[in-house]
Write a sequence for this structure.
C-alpha cells in the first residue's frame, strides 16, 4: 500500500470522472453571471482531458499510460463522452486523443516574442458537453463507477490504483451516498486503495471556500460532511503537487475534498488528483 | 604523420521502451575521420516533450555539420554569441522540416510547447606534424565529456561529480522564448590533447554511473571499451546495473573518440 507503482504502458492507471448533470447544474456559477455550473465543469473536464492526452503524446503517437472514464448522472446515469466515444465506459488515453467529438478553434492573443501581440488559433478538442437536466441519482452513479472499476482492477491488479473525481452541486435524490462512497474507497490494487476526490460546488449562499481540509469541523451542511467522509486522504506526492505547484499548505491528513463555487479550486483539484508521480 | 580519429558509438533505449523510442542522438556515425575537420556531438532529448528525439537528432547533426570554430582564446561571451547564432539557424531549419498540417491536434500543441535536448559537442585543433594539440568543448545540460589518459581520468566536463546530476537540467528548446537566454547555461572548456588520449561523450544516466565508479577508485572505461569493441554487450551491462540500481532507467549513449596516428 505505497502508491509507488510505476505508471507505464504495461502497468497503466485509470482516471474516472463522475459528473453531476442534474437540473441545478444549470444555475449560474457564483460571481460569473451567465455561465452555468454545467458549462464551467464541462470546460474544466475538456481542458483536463486535453492535458492528459498531451502528457502522454510522443512523436510516434499517444502512449497508453491511462484509461479514462466519464460517467454522468441526471436524467439518466451512464457513460458521458460525446461523439465517437459515446456509450463507452473506459477508454485508453490514445483513443481519447484520437476521437474527440469535435475540435473547436478559438483565437487567443499571445506574445510574439518581439514585444508585439498576435492572434493565434488554438485548437480546443471537446469530448464532454454541458447538460443540466433531471434529478441527482448519485448512489446509482457511484454504483456504476464501482462496477466499472472493479473490472478494471481485476485486469490491472498491480497498477497504481484508479483515481475517481466526483463533481456535484447538490444532494443525492436516490438515498444517502455514504455507503456507496465507502465501498468505492475500499476498492484497491496491490499498490493502494482507490483514491476518491469529491468537489462540492455548493449553491448555498455564504458558504466559506474550503480546500483539502483535514477534518469536517468547518462543514455545516450534512451533504458536505458526507462527501468529506467519502474522500480519500491525499498521497504524499499529491500533497507535494498541491504545496509546491498550487501554493497550498497541506499536511498529512488532508483529504481530497473541495467546497466552493470557485472554478479555480475545481481545476486545482483536478490537477492534483491526476498528476502521476511515477510516469515512465 | 597524419592524425585521424576513430569514432565508435553504442546506445540503448530505456528499459521497457521500444528501440524506436530512443531519444538520445549522436553525430557522426561510427567510422574514421580526419581530426581537424570533425565535430562530435551527443544530445539527450527530454522525455516529457513529444518531439525531443527529432530535435536532439537535428541538434547533434547540425552541430557536427556547422562551421562553428571554437577557439581556446575566445572569451565566453563570444562563444555564447556563436552558439546563439548557431541555435537560431538550427531552430529555423528544424521547424521547417515539420509539416504542421499533417499533425493531429495534440502533436501541434506539443510542437507549440517546444522540444528540449542537451548538447555536449567537441572539436580538435592539432597541427599535422605535432604530437599534441587542443580540444575544445561546449555543453548545455548534463551530457558529459571524459578524457582518459594512460589509465586515468584526465578531464571531466561539464559536470565533475556524480552528485551534480538531477532530473531538471537546463535544456535547449526548439523555441526561443522571450527572456530565454543561453548565457549562463552554456559551459565551455579548452584543454590540451595528446595523441594517445581517449575521449568519451555520454548522456546523463551513464555519465553519473561513470563518475560514481571513478569516485570509488574504479576505471569504468575498462567496462565500456570491450562493449565499444563488440566483445561485450551494452544490454548485459545495463541489465546488471539496473538490477543492482546502480543506474537510472534512461536512454544510454556512449561515444568513444580515439586519436589514431597514421605514419
Amino acid at each position: 500500500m505505497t502508491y509507488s507503482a510505476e505508471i507505464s504502458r504495461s502497468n497503466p492507471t485509470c482516471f474516472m470522472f463522475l459528473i453531476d448533470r442534474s437540473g441545478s447544474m444549470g444555475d449560474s456559477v457564483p460571481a460569473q453571471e451567465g455561465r452555468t455550473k454545467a458549462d464551467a465543469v464541462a470546460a474544466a473536464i475538456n481542458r483536463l482531458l486535453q492535458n492528459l492526452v498531451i502528457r502522454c503524446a510522443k512523436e510516434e503517437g499517444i502512449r497508453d499510460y491511462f484509461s479514462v472514464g466519464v460517467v454522468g448522472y441526471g436524467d439518466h446515469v451512464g457513460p458521458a463522452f460525446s461523439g465517437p466515444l459515446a456509450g463507452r465506459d473506459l477508454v485508453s488515453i490514445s483513443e481519447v486523443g484520437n476521437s474527440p467529438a469535435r475540435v473547436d478553434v478559438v483565437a487567443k492573443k499571445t506574445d510574439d516574442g518581439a514585444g508585439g501581440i498576435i492572434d493565434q488559433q488554438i485548437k480546443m478538442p471537446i469530448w464532454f458537453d454541458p447538460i443540466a437536466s433531471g434529478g441527482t441519482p448519485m448512489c446509482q452513479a457511484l454504483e456504476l463507477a464501482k462496477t466499472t472499476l472493479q473490472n478494471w482492477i481485476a485486469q490491472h491488479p498491480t497498477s497504481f490504483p484508479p483515481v475517481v473525481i466526483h463533481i456535484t452541486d447538490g444532494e443525492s435524490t436516490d438515498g444517502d451516498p455514504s455507503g456507496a462512497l465507502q465501498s468505492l474507497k475500499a476498492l484497491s490494487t496491490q499498490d493502494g486503495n482507490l483514491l476518491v476526490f469529491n468537489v462540492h460546488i455548493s449553491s448555498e449562499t455564504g458558504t466559506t471556500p474550503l480546500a483539502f481540509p483535514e477534518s469536517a469541523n468547518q462543514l455545516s451542511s450534512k451533504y458536505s460532511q458526507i462527501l468529506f467522509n467519502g474522500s480519500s486522504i491525499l498521497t504524499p506526492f499529491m500533497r507535494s503537487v498541491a504545496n509546491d505547484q498550487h501554493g497550498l499548505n497541506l499536511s498529512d491528513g488532508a483529504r481530497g475534498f473541495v467546497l466552493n463555487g470557485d472554478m479555480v479550486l475545481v481545476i486545482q483539484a483536478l490537477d492534483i488528483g491526476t498528476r502521476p508521480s511515477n510516469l515512465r | 604523420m597524419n592524425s585521424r580519429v576513430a569514432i565508435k558509438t553504442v546506445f540503448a533505449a530505456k528499459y521497457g521502451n521500444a528501440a524506436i523510442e530512443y531519444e538520445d542522438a549522436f553525430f557522426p556515425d561510427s567510422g574514421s575521420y580526419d581530426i581537424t575537420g570533425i565535430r562530435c556531438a551527443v544530445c539527450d532529448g527530454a522525455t516529457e516533450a513529444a518531439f525531443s528525439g527529432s530535435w536532439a537528432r537535428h541538434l547533434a547533426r547540425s552541430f557536427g555539420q556547422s562551421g562553428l570554430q571554437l577557439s581556446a582564446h575566445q572569451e565566453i561571451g563570444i562563444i555564447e554569441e556563436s552558439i546563439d547564432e548557431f541555435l537560431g539557424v538550427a531552430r529555423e531549419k528544424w521547424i521547417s522540416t515539420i509539416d504542421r498540417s499533417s499533425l493531429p491536434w495534440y502533436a501541434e500543441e506539443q510542437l507549440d510547447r517546444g522540444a528540449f535536448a542537451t548538447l555536449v559537442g567537441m572539436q580538435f585543433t592539432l597541427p599535422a606534424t605535432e604530437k599534441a594539440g587542443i580540444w575544445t568543448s561546449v555543453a548545455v545540460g548534463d551530457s558529459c565529456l571524459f578524457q582518459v589518459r594512460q589509465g586515468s581520468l584526465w578531464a571531466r566536463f561539464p559536470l565533475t561529480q556524480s552528485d551534480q546530476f538531477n532530473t531538471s537540467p537546463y535544456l535547449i528548446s526548439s523555441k526561443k522564448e522571450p527572456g530565454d537566454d543561453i548565457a549562463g547555461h552554456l559551459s565551455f572548456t579548452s584543454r590540451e590533447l595528446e595523441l594517445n588520449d581517449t575521449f568519451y561523450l555520454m548522456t546523463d544516466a551513464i555519465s553519473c554511473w561513470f563518475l560514481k565508479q571513478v569516485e570509488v577508485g574504479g576505471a569504468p572505461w575498462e567496462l565500456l571499451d570491450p562493449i565499444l569493441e563488440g566483445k561485450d554487450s551494452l544490454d548485459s551491462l545495463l541489465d546488471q546495473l539496473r538490477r543492482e540500481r546502480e543506474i537510472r532507467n534512461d536512454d544510454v549513449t556512449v561515444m568513444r573518440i580515439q586519436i589514431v596516428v597514421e605514419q
In short: Chain B touches chain A through 20 residues (CB under 8 Å). The radius of gyration of chain B is 18 Å. Chain B has six helices and 13 strands.
